[in-house]
Amino acid sequence: xxxxxxxxxxxxxxxxxxxxxxxxxxxxxxxxxxxxxxxxxxxxxxxxxxxxxxxxxxxxxxxxxxxxxxxxxxxxxxxxxxxxxxxxxxxxxxxxxxxxxxxxxxxxxxxxxxxxxxxxxxxxxxxxxxxxxxxxxxxxxxxxxxxxxxxxxxxxxxxxxxxxxxxxxxxxxxxxxxxxxxxxxxxxxxxxxxxxxxxxxxxxxxxxxxxxxxxxxxxxxxxxxxxxxxxxxxxxxxxxxxxxxxxxxxxxxxxxxxxxxxxxxxxxxxxxxxxxxxxxxxxxxxxxxxxxxxxxxxxxxxxxxxxxxxxxxxxxxxxxxxxx
Amino acid sequence: xxxxxxxxxxxxxxxxxxxxxxxxxxxxxxxxxxxxxxxxxxxxxxxxxxxxxxxxxxxxxxxxxxxxxxxxxxxxxxxxxxxxxxxxxxxxxxxxxxxxxxxxxxxxxxxxxxxxxxxxxxxxxxxxxxxxxxxxxxxxxxxxxxxxxxxxxxxxxxxxxxxxxxxxxxxxxxxxxxxxxxxxxxxxxxxxxxxxxxxxxxxxxxxxxxxxxxxxxxxxxxxxxxxxxxxxxxxxxxxxxxxxxxxxxxxxxxxx
Lengths: 324, 256
Fold this sequence. Notes:
The complex is a heterodimer.
Chain A: H1 10-17, E1 23-26, H2 36-44, E2 50-53, H3 59-66, E3 70-75, H4 88-96, E4 100-103, H5 106-118, E5 122-125, H6 132-135, H7 141-146, E6 156-159, E7 170-175, E8 181-189, E9 195-196, H8 204-210, E10 213-221, H9 224-228, E11 243-246, H10 264-274, H11 277-289, H12 294-301, H13 303-308
Parallel strand pairs in A: 1-2, 1-8, 2-3, 3-4, 8-10, 10-11
Antiparallel strand pairs in A: 5-7, 6-7, 8-9
Helix pairs in contact in A: 1-2, 2-3, 3-4, 5-8, 10-11
Chain B: H1 7-16, E1 24-26, H2 31-41, E2 48-50, E3 55-56, E4 78-79, H3 82-90, H4 92-95, E5 98-103, E6 106-107, E7 113-114, E8 117-119, E9 124-127, H5 134-140, E10 143-147, H6 173-177, E11 183-188, E12 192-196, E13 203-208, H7 214-219, E14 231-232, H8 238-248
Parallel strand pairs in B: 1-2, 1-5, 5-10, 10-11, 13-14
Antiparallel strand pairs in B: 3-4, 6-7, 8-9, 11-12, 12-13
Helix pairs in contact in B: 1-2, 2-8
C-alpha cells in the first residue's frame, strides 16, 4: 500500500487548503528552505487575516506580512541574518500597530509544535523563567478567551510536581500548536508525499506533524522506490501529507541545501524596496502580482543568476558566491 | 610596529581569546560567528562550534550569514534540528560545557538583555527580531559572552523588555527564578570589555582597548560601573588579524 497520488499544482493546493483567517505554519529557518513559491502564491491569491506560526522564520514571514496576509503572528525571531537583522515589513507592521505578535523563544516554539505533534496539551522547559517572555503577553486575556482556537494563557510557570527530582524547582509550560495547515519545502518527495529533507530539518518535521493538513513543495519529485531504499533518511511519512507540488527552486530566493544557495542579489533588492511603502508596492507589483507563478518569477530573475547560486557538489552551497 | 585594525576586529579577537579548548560554542548571527571561527584557528583548535538550528561541530569553510545558512550544515558531525540543539543546552551534562555568544539592543547592570522591543511592548517605538534562541541559551548554559555597542541607548539601568536572563536582580536571582546557576561572564563592546562581580553580580570594567580611557566608557553608559580593576587589553596581534582577515572573513561580510 503506497498511498494515493497527491501531486497537484501550487495554485490548486493553496486554494484548497489555505483560507482567509486560517491558522498556518511555514517551515524553514531565516534564509533557508522557506516555502517561498507557496508564500508568493498565497500573496497572489490575496488570502488575508492569517494566524501565522513560526520559530525563526525570516523571508517567508516577512513577505507574507508585506503582502498583507497576516493578522496575528506567534514567533520567536523575525530576522533574515545579515540581509535584515530584523525583518523589515514585520518591524513596520508592529510599529504601526497593524500586526499582533506573541513572543516566545525558539525552543518554546519547537516544543509547542512537538506537543501538537504528540497530541499532548503542553510541554515543559526551563527556558524563560524570570523573563518578560513569561510576564508579558502580546495577545490579551480577552482575545484569548474569546477565541476557541487559542489557549486561555500564553504559557504558565509550575512548581516541579516531582519535588527535587531532576534538580529543577520550576518549569515553564508551553501550549501545543495545531495549525490548520503546514507548508514545507523539501529537497525530495514522492507522489504520495513521503519526504526527504537534506541537511538541517530545523523544526519542519514537528511543524508538519502538528498540523491537520500538510502541503509539501519539493525541488525533485522522485520515484517511491528511490526513497524507500533508505527509509531511515526520510522524515515525513506520506500518511500525513495532503498535497505534493513539484516546484524546482521552490525555496528561492532562500537556500535549499545541496540544490542552490540563497540569492544575495534578490535579498538585497528586497531589503532596499521593503524599507519604504511606495517602493514596496512596486516590488509587490513587479515580482509577485506581475508574475503568473513561480516559474514566471524565476524567468524574471534570469538563468544567469540561478546559475550563480547553483550548489557546489561537495559543500552543498554556492562556493565563493559574491555575498557582498 | 603598530598594525591598523578596526573596532570589529578588536571585538572579535577580544571574545575569541576567552574561548578555550573543550568549550562548545553556541553562535548567533554576525560577529559572534567570527569570534568562534577565529578562536578555532588561534587559541582553541579543539573547541566545537554549534548552532541552535541543530548543526553540531560545523566546519565553516565559509562564513555563514545566518544560523540557518547552508554553510553551517557542510561537514558537521550531526545535522539534527532545533529540538536537539536546545535539549543539548538544557541538559546539564552537556549544557555546562557550552559558552553562548549573544548580542542585544539593551543590557542592564546585571547582564539581562533586551532583543525584543524599545518603548511600550504593545506598541513599540522600535521593534527588534525577538528572542530567537537567545533566551533559551541564557536560561540554560554556564557562561555567556555578550556583544554590545557602547552607548547610552544600549547600557540602560532598566530594560524596556527582559528577553534573555542574565543575573536577573543580582545575587541569588537566578536560583529564585528557578534557573540554572550559570550566567553572563563578559560584555565585549567597541570600547572595552566588561565583567560581572562575583559577589554583587554587577557589571564592572575589566579593561579598555588601546587609546580608550575609563571615563570615555562611563560616559557612554546609563549606569555606574566600578573601573578600579581595569587592566590594559592588548591590541590584536599580526597573526590574529591575518587569521581573521584571510581565513574567517575574506569578503569582509561582517568586518565591513
